Amino acid sequence: MNGPAGRRAELAAALTAVRTRVAAACAAAGRGLDEVELLAVTKTHPAADVAALLDLGLSAFGENRPQEAGAKSAELRRLRPGADARWHLVGRLQRNKARSVATWAARVESIDSARLAGALDDAVSRIREAGGRDGALPVLVQISLDADPARGGVPLDGARALSDAVAGSRSLLLRGVMAVAPRGADPDRAFATLRRAATGIHAEHPGAEVISAGMTADLEAAIRNGSTCVRVGTALLGDRPLILR
């Protein structure tokens, strides 16, 4: 099928399949379906796809490049004026991009250093003082489960200290943790490690309830191990280059 109607049908079928997987994983883990949020990772896909997913009932979307996300959120406002779309930054953030992210992000999931947290805190504070944003910016501390610097994340032994720093900031709201399972590793073991770290952080910071873990290939393992947010891209949108519409 070609054209907007065909693409919408593709997305609807994919969304049904993903929701079925999530529901089955929740049932197998003895968890309620309302305990796990589905975050559609729309990086490299056009705003028209986001609009279609909005029409199908999704409201949270993940991007990994600030410049692409800013342009896409503006295009979505044109396509769906007044729609309630929430944008999450799930990729690595450079400190010099902090101000632009603070203007559109509903949550940043990739805080992995005190310097980055400080830069983002300053940017959000300035925007709030200028009247450009209401309230603090929710963030997650990204934890590295394999110490691979290319994938980002604070080492496990530094996660508590970084969480404390975020919690003590002026304009950031610590909401929990995020991680990616190491390549080639047992995802159950990786996500069990993440859950232990999240439990310790939550004991010190009761508002840090989010565990963002699990993607297309390993969402079942993540849900078994307490994930409250799965980040799904390929299973929903397929492998497509960015097409401007």
Task: Report on this structure.
The structure is a single chain. With 245 residues, the protein is of the alpha/beta class. It has a single domain (3-237), classed as Alanine racemase (TIM Barrel). Helix content is 44%, strand content 17%. It is built from nine helices and nine strands. Strands 1, 2, 3, 4, 5, 6, 7, 8 and 9 form a nine-stranded parallel β-sheet that branches. Helix 4 (98-104) links the parallel strand 3 and strand 4 (107-111). Helix 1 packs across helix 2 and helix 4 crosses helix 5 (114-129). The longest helix has 26 residues, at 3-28. The mean pLDDT is 94.
List the helices and strands and how they pair.
Layout: H1 3-28, E1 37-41, H2 47-55, E2 60-63, H3 66-79, E3 86-89, H4 98-104, E4 107-111, H5 114-129, E5 137-144, E6 154-155, H6 159-167, E7 172-178, H7 187-204, E8 210-212, H8 219-224, E9 229-232, H9 234-237
Parallel strand pairs: 1-2, 1-9, 2-3, 3-4, 4-5, 5-6, 5-7, 7-8
For CATH, the homologous superfamily is named as Alanine racemase
**Alpha plus pi helix count:** 9
Tally of DSSP β-strands: 9
Relative helix content: 40-55%
Largest sheet: 9 strands, parallel
CATH topology label: TIM Barrel
* Cα-atom radius of gyration: 18 Å
| Low-confidence regions | none
Quaternary status: single chain
Domains (count): 1
End-to-end gap: 18 Å
Mean pLDDT across all amino acids: 94
Q: What is the CATH architecture annotation?
A: Alpha-Beta Barrel
Order of helices and strands: HEHEHEHEHEEHEHEHEH
